[in-house]
Amino acid sequence: MQEKHKRTSPRERGKIEKQTHGRKNSRRMKQLRRRRRRLIAAMLLILLIPAGGLLLFLNLHPLFLKDDTIELELQGSFDPAENIRYVFGGNADQVRTEGSADLAKPGDYTVTYIYKKYRRSVTVRVQDTIPPELDLHPYTADLTEEITPEKFVEKVSDASDVSLRFQDPQKWDEAKEYRIGIVAEDASGNKTVKDTTLTRIKDETGPVISGADDIEILQGKYVDFSSGITVSDDIDPNPSLDIDDKKADLNTPGTYYVVYTAKDRSGNVTELQRKVTVDENPEWKEKAVYLTFDDGPSENTGRILDILKQYNIKATFFVTGNNQEHDDMIKRAFDEGHSIGLHTYTHDYASVYASEEAYFDDLKKISDLVESIIGQKSYLIRFPGGSSNTVSAEYTSGIMTDLTKKVLEEGYQYFDWNCDSTDAEGNNVPVEKIVKNASSADSMHINILMHDTDAKDTTVEALPQIIEHYRQMGYSFKALTPASYAPHHHVNN
Description:
Shape: elongated
Helix content: 25-40%
CATH class of the largest domain: Alpha Beta
CATH architecture of the largest domain: Alpha-Beta Barrel
Radius of gyration: 50 Å
Strand content: 25-35%
Structural class: alpha/beta
Number of domains: 4
CATH topology of the largest domain: TIM Barrel
Distance between the termini: 169 Å
Largest sheet: 6 strands, parallel
Number of helices: 8
């Protein structure tokens, strides 16, 4: 018997379809989840690859700078740290540099930044782009003055050297006002041009001489007739001055005139006569011998003082600071009525003639020493070697010309000599020779050069004969004062 097929009920069919659909949805969800995971993994991979590359790049290039070319103005400032933007894994303080830029010279310079093993170079370009700053003023000149651009400049400044020139050079040789263009150009070619005026005038006014007042002096006093004299002119900054004092005999009482003649570059001349009255010096009425002793004090100073005391005569001692164990002789000489003069502290030519300042520093030392011993300042000077010495030229050219004027301006009087005993020629010069040379003068006023160091025993021995010679000749013996006759040698330096 043939088996009959079962029929599925709609309910069962619905159940079966539902189960089948559920299984399909489950499979689809699993597939979606797998796809989502693969997508996320892919996206992460996409993200991780650049990030890793970025990290690798940052590790290889950890230093970020603002500029690879830094432009600076000449004479400006440069701080390499200011060009650092970012440092990966560190800070700017850990960055060092090699190389530098010369901010005083235009050009391209290389500066290398170094962070750990990383190096990066930049170009520092120093340039000059700013033109000079120029301020001008009007200028007035006579018809003889040479006109240059510099005469119009009130102020000029730039980071580099500046040259000046006229924009349109001319002769400007007429007495009138001109418009002048001045060009200021720096070393880099930057230019500034400004205008001003030049006024040319015909100068018909002579210079003005000041300080030449009439003077009255004592016979024998030296006067520097150039001291205190000034010459000015309304146009010429350097007018010439000529002083004619040839007719002024300062050793003879009377009235004299010193003629001052000033001349400017336009040829205008001003002449001024200065009246000089020379009064009689009572000290000069009689024949006098001034015995002077240099380079002491020493043991021989005491022996000389004994002789002077024996003859009841006065002398002058030009002392140094070289033998201070005998400074008591300076005090004794002063107390016994003798004059104390200044012969420099060291008597070292190289030192005292090194400069004008050096001389006066040395002079102050001996002046202070003498004042501390005798209680008063001395204004009597004798230069080492005398004012005519030439050895000073080995140290300072022209110094004696300056010193002989300056000491007089400072109130001192310097004394050379007009009779040389020649005892400076060496030690133990024969007595006979010293006597002969020291007794050879017959002037109204005789200043005898001698020395009282320890080595001058023969000078001490010769002294009595010298004194007796001049006594027989009718001379008196006097100590020097600032008003005494002062022989001055011809200055050779």
